[in-house]
């Protein structure tokens, strides 16, 4: 394996200065255009398709704590949005429903007690709850009914 393919990033300086000997009979036409162009060293030719150091970012990623600390040191206009002042409108999506017993997504609601449950196994537990305990589960999600 050649030395330049073993992980080295640049060729040795002697490889740049030494001319490359090609079989002139095979590649006479492409070499004629190359010789007419007047280019002697291909390494000196500008390559616009390669990334240069002026376009590469030397900065590092900042975590949220660093960004917030940097924001607080600057004087921002009052209406300028920052991490501390971002307000979001209420969601247009419906609120997710979770099982009152397990906390898993609830697909079903018991019509008698209004307790949400995930599956048939959880429904068996809901049916065996003592009277009044379903009100405690509903109170956890602020859906309990207070009779006066």
UniProtKB/TrEMBL annotation:
One GO term of the biological process aspect: chromatin remodeling
Key words of the record: Nucleus, Transcription, Transcription regulation
Organism per entry: Coemansia aciculifera
Pfam families: YL1_C (PF08265)
Subcellular location: Nucleus
Any one GO CC term of the record: Ino80 complex
Protein name: Chromatin-remodeling complex subunit ies6
Keyword Acetylation in annotation: no
Vps72/YL1 C-terminal domain mapped to chain residues: 97-126
Cross-referenced PANTHER family: INO80 COMPLEX SUBUNIT C
Superkingdom of the organism of origin: Eukaryota
């Amino acid at each position: 394996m050649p030395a330049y393919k073993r992980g080295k990033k640049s060729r040795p300086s002697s490889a740049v200065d030494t001319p490359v000997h090609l079989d002139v009979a095979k590649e006479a036409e492409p070499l004629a255009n190359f010789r007419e162009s007047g280019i002697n060293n291909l390494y000196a030719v500008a390559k616009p398709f390669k990334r240069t150091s002026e376009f590469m970012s030397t900065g590092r990623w900042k975590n949220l704590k660093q960004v917030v600390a940097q924001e607080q040191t600057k004087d921002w206009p009052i209406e300028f949005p920052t991490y501390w002042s971002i307000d979001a409108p209420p969601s247009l999506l419906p609120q997710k429903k979770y099982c009152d017993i397990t906390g898993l997504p609830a697909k079903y609601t018991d019509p008698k007690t209004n307790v949400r449950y995930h599956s048939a196994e959880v429904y068996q537990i809901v049916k065996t709850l003592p009277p009044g305990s379903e009100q405690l589960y509903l109170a956890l999600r602020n859906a309990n009914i207070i009779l006066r």
